[in-house]
Amino acid sequence: MKIETTTLPDVLVLTPPRFGDERGFFSESWNRRTLSQAGLDLPDFVQDNHSLSAHVGTIRGLHYQAPPFAQGKLVRCGRGSLLDVAVDARLGSPFYGQWVAVALSDRNGRQLWVPPGFLHGFVSLEPDTEIIYKCTAHYNRESDGAVRWDSLGIDWGVTDPILSPKDRDAPPFAEWDSPFVYGGGA
Ligand SMILES: Cc1cn([C@H]2C[C@H](O)[C@@H](COP(=O)(O)OP(=O)(O)O[C@H]3O[C@@H](C)C(=O)[C@@H](O)[C@H]3O)O2)c(=O)[nH]c1=O
């Protein structure tokens, strides 16, 4: 298991080994014990999500659930490729408003750990891109929120993305009241 840091210290890139043979490959996409032995103990996961973005340039994000339903997410790409983005939204954090973008694909097998207190979003880079992610809290519709994708200077590589109505109407980061507090156990 390869564990890499990013420019945001709490956001990590995990790459489980793949065992390739003439059939393809085998990989343990999640193994609590292996991660723990590597020194990383993530919170418990209670929900797995899977979505398909049919077209290149689909952006989903930037999303969050407010406490006490804040979610940490372990994200990977099941098919195609995507640019996955995490934004530190914890008031008082030295990295507040900073973001990291990591390319995840079905080829590179990389996973992004997005902790609670971070906004999450992605753009699809290929048709029929599938994202799969484990969550540390259940979906709670009333706590679900979004921040405008283009309000943080993130280089998505697209200027006219496909968006849901919710994401099109989301407030810009500067006009949004973050419910997350640094060190507040978001
Ligand atoms: C997120 C979610 C949605 N839904 C329902 C609500 C709605 O009817 C339908 C589609 O929801 P959305 O438009 O919010 O789906 P989507 O835009 O894909 O939202 C997701 O985006 C990524 C970036 C995330 O990080 C996720 O946490 C989630 O916010 O699915 C659930 O039933 N459970 C869930 O956990």
TrEMBL record:
It catalyses: dTDP-4-dehydro-6-deoxy-alpha-D-glucose = dTDP-4-dehydro-beta-L-rhamnose. Gene3D superfamilies: Jelly Rolls. Keywords: Isomerase. GO terms for cellular component: cytosol. One of its GO terms (biological process) is polysaccharide biosynthetic process. The keyword Isomerase applies. Pathway: Carbohydrate biosynthesis; dTDP-L-rhamnose biosynthesis. SUPFAM superfamilies: RmlC-like cupins. Its EC number is 5.1.3.13. The active site is at 63 (proton acceptor), 133 (proton donor). CDD domains: cupin_RmlC. Pfam families: dTDP_sugar_isom. One of its GO terms (molecular function) is dTDP-4-dehydrorhamnose 3,5-epimerase activity. The record marks 139 as: Participates in a stacking interaction with the thymidine ring of dTDP-4-oxo-6-deoxyglucose. Homodimer. Belongs to the dTDP-4-dehydrorhamnose 3,5-epimerase family. Catalyzes the epimerization of the C3' and C5'positions of dTDP-6-deoxy-D-xylo-4-hexulose, forming dTDP-6-deoxy-L-lyxo-4-hexulose. This is dTDP-4-dehydrorhamnose 3,5-epimerase. The lineage of its organism: Bacteria, Pseudomonadati, Pseudomonadota, Alphaproteobacteria, Rhodobacterales.
